[in-house]
Amino acid sequence: MHHFAYRHGVLHAEGISLNDMASQVGTPFYCYSTATLTRHYEVFAQAFAGADSLICYSVKANSNLAVLKTLGQLGSGMDVVSEGELRRARAAGIAPERIVFSGVGKTREEMAFALEEGIHAFNVESEAELTALSEVAAAGGHEARIAIRVNPDIDPKTHKKISTGKAEDKFGVPYARARELYTRAAAMPGIQLRGVHMHIGSQITDLTPFGDAFALLRDLAGQLREDGHSIEFINFGGGLGVPYRGDNDVPPHPDDYARTVRAAAKDLNVRLLFEPGRMIAANAGILVTRVLYTKKGANKTFTVVDAAMNDLIRPTLYEAWHEMWPVREELRKESPQTTDVVGPVCETGDYLALDRALPPFHEGDLMAVMTAGAYGAVQSSTYNTRPLIPEVMVSGDGFAIVRPRPSFEELLGLDRIPEWLK
Q: Which of 149, 302, 308, 338 has the CB geometry, 3.0–4.6 Å to 172, for a possible disulfide?
């Protein structure tokens, strides 16, 4: 569910007309709904009511400080994968004991910073990382609380670029070697073994892979306790999918996911950690773009808009599908036409949709690219010297620009001319 709906013939974000917003902000821009962020977090949290749990929102899905602050005020912790994301979480007021640090390539400098901050735990991804973390922690007089991320070699049945739990993926340590690595870790200075971790992928819409993976996680936790390790928490990762195709693409409800988790954690007496990102942020955001031109090619019709692959790379990177709604509702009554929705960037891969049956958009019409709140703005770039587009947050009948569009002067000012060229 989201809070984008038509009122008086115009698409609104909560109580704000997107026509009015576009006239003030300019296009293209991202728009986030506070009510939707709140609802999605609370539905997930309520699914685990009564359990000792810590929900750590995955910052990489959408790292805008206003988004993080909103979720933090609801009680969310954060899952970070870089020092920059850790600094964002702290700037948004997230207590360090509610932050976990993931990622396969943590630098020693990042480890030292996180240790100084006093984060809840590191998700360790390799033996080499474990050694480095031990050395950094011991040198600084710290104790690093860790969970080792285990790769169960389970197909999450999702896109190959967002699969993280198969043997050929770069994430985690092989399940068969986990007990051995825990034994080694227990003897290392500066290391406190406290949990186990698993994250098998993203945009998962079938509970079966979760059930298979969590059963292995349960078995491993029991084995590790038999080996004498103190397992206080299990981090189940994230990955629950979202309905990119509207009512035709309905993923499992968090309540159903929670039943799968609870079955795996039954009688273990552990704290439950989660790292949801997409399922909280995706449907809470849209990309609003304006049609520049319509173009008849020899074999295709093109709808040229002012947003491009540098603003939303998901369609060309992941072959991702996003619903596209006209901001002017009456367009929905017209017969659809097959078109490619493309941007101004000089790449054949610059598209938002291919061979899509859409209302006949005209020059100047506004289009809303739905379910764009996750992995949208965070993956944007300034390719073709196109400034990053604004991010706007709506709350009821008010809105604020939470990341402004930089000027060309600011963008060019990031470069430096060497002395020999002056």
A: 149
